[in-house]
Amino acid sequence: MNFASRITRQPIAFDPDLGAEALEGLPDLGAEVNGLIHGVAGCSPYLKSLLAKEGEWIAAAMDNPEAAVTGEHNALRNCPPDQLPSTLRQGKRRIALLAALADCGGVWALEQVTGALTDFADLSVHLALRATIGQEIKRKKLPGAVPEDAEHAGGMVALAMGKMGAGELNYSSDIDLICLFDESRFDRDDYHDARASFVRATRRMAAMLSDLTGDGYVFRTDLRLRPDPAVTPVCMAMAAAETYYESLGRTWERAAYIKARAAAGDLGAGDAFLQTLLPFVWRKHLDFAAIQDAHDMRLRIREHKGLGGALELPGHNMKLGRGGIREIEFFTQTRQLIAGGRDTDLRVRGTVEGLKVLAAKDWITPEVAEKLTDHYRFHRTVEHRVQMVNDAQTHALPKSPENMQRLALFLGRDQAELETELRARLEEVHSLTEEFFAPDAADPAALQPAFDPSIISRWSSYPAFRSARAVEIFERIKPRLFAQLQRAAKPDEALAALDGFLAGLPAGVQLLSLFEANPQLIDLLVDIVGSSPSLASYLSRNSGVFDAVIGGSFFADWPGLAALSDDLALRLAEDPDYEHKLDQARRWSKEWRFRIGVHHLRGLIDANEAAVHYAELAEATLAALWPEVAAQFAQKHGPAPGRGATVLGMGSLGAGRLNSTSDLDLIVVYDADGVEFSEGRKPLAARTYYAKLTQAMVTAVTAQMPQGRLYEIDMRLRPSGTQGPVATSLASFRDYQTHEAWTWEHLALSRARAVAGAKEVADDVEQVRRDVLALPRERAKVLTDVAEMRARISAAKPPSGPWDAKIGPGRLQDVELLAQAGVLVAQQPARSVPEALAAAVEAALIAPEEKERLLMAYDLCWKVQMVSKLISDHALDPEAIGEGGRALLLQETSEPEVAPLQAKLFELCDAAGRVIDNVLIREGGQLLGSRHE
Length: 933
Fold this sequence. Notes:
This protein is mainly alpha-helical and 933 residues long.
């Protein structure tokens, strides 16, 4: 489609005579284009001068402006090096003039205008580098290089920063470049010669683009964004730059690299370098401290430029002033920095693109994104017109009424209407962004709560408040914090719990910044410290898990085992470092465990759902981690010999029900399938291989790392207990379970379930389990053995008190023991307690009404146990867990008060204990270890 048919707006000539003069030297291009040129030239003496020089080219470009741009690029690529400086300047005139006409006439959208300017900048830098590096190669100054290497700048790259990196160059932009070279391409003895050659080429490239000649200039080129520019050369080795960023890089440099892009030279080397900087730019945790850093930068810029104070339109800086472009960019980039380490979708360069993805990921509302995008495009359009008047690198609105009138006409607007709209837009941008960077300081009058002053006064001595910055942030969030504490059922208890949380924090700035930016987290924190001191203590040691709360899906439905396994497996696959994988697994697991705890605390799930979630989380963790451990082990000892191994979950994990503090009972079974040794750099006998692989897995799960440990592991349920090997062959497992295992081991086997490893081996182990459980047994012998076990348990570990839901007659362990006995008597493969008790009814071991009494006790005990483990590290004592803990306990058990709940617990457990007593007496003929005998 030709240019004329796409014109949607017309500027109005400020000086009609200038517009008329511009048309005199041009052919008749039709009313629409003629009118556009008249208006543009009548507002911009500079564009009129370009029309005088490039009018013929512009006239030809009207048929297909995009094709004209492509043709100009192709002509430049074929330009001889000695003609390149003048030809680049001619190309800049043409592209700039065409972009200006397309912008003013509405032919191109803002992004297409800035994209055309950026594409020409990329090409200009590339061609200038190709020429200057080519000169170095021709003079044999670049070690080992041949002429063909000039096309890729001999291993050097120019990183485009700022607007050029984001494809957002404005009409009179400088271009910000960081020039680096790949030192690995050169021998050590050639390093200094190579660096000197690249430095010369960089300087000549910058001069070719920047020098003002009779033909003008191409782009003003700024090389000062490189590390420590006062003392470093204009082209640095990549290794030196990487070392700088890792050790000394600052927040503003992290923000700058959001937009960084390999633009010219060796693009592959540039992309590889940017990949190495990802951990510097994008932090693993949500980085809310970046908000204060960005705010401080804004204030320094305003102070340095003298741009503070109330909004005045004359001379107002559309880029750096109040409500300007930079505020939108900082707002966008800072939010990207906060969460981009965890969400790679946020790692986009463009401001408009960034706002769009932030809204899509719920970091800002769609309404805010839409408003800021609209303001950004408007601001950039105004900025372009200001710059087009005289090709001036300015962002300031005109100071005189006459020049403001020129700007209004250039935009095709009424001056008064334009000024009104400018004020409204600038104020709205300021309003939308300022609250994010600088929320109102706390009202001192609000900081006088009726709390124990001795507790509050000692906070200043805690590690979290060592820095003045942490104290400053905390002062701002105190009103919300104290308001929430005062809403607690017992504010003094909540304050004491909060005190414990704050005392345990090793540092404060990051977490307090997160609270300030997300006040809803303060509400959640008070909920937690007021209800679950155990979870609060966990939080103070692992405050990074708060990141997950604001990730967008924290309160969504449970994703299920398959989704969890896939998610962790994908995360681990993306990190090549083994120790990083283990830490990643710990971070991931902590966040999900915290999520389950909060959902349970908030009543979004009940105890039974929480138990399943904890079990699925553990299984997903093991399933994703096992292949990583196996792959790491195989690097040294070769792939697993035979068919591989499976990890069996025993006990509560096998039954698919864990609590918040459960350890994992595991057994590893392997099948070498006749293969005697592994094949690797250090081969091992099959038995040794699987034993050491198992130990490696245990270490991967239990090792204390920067992110803590995953779980404690207990392997005492393996064949022969602690006397047996840590990994058992399938044949030995089958033989042992069939001929040697004790009754208690068959009871444990009833709940065994494969949770990780080779599926074929897991299927065979499951068949062994079913075969063993189907074996005929003497009913009396099973019950006698159970009675003896019950007696040993009672003697070894008495209940911790009346609220002990696990130990004691008729409580969890007691009911589970009888349920497992029912599985053996019924010769059925049931795992869960309800299924096992149903099998016991079928086998006439218990009556249906006895099953119901057992299940009622078991269900109540499970609920009490789940709450107990969530809220406290100690034995449950309703008087010691605070009002919030008691409320959670009563909510979970659907009881109105603690006293009726305690009476119900005793009544149901007593009834269940008597059922078990009766079964053992009538079936086994003896009763040992019961309080009811």
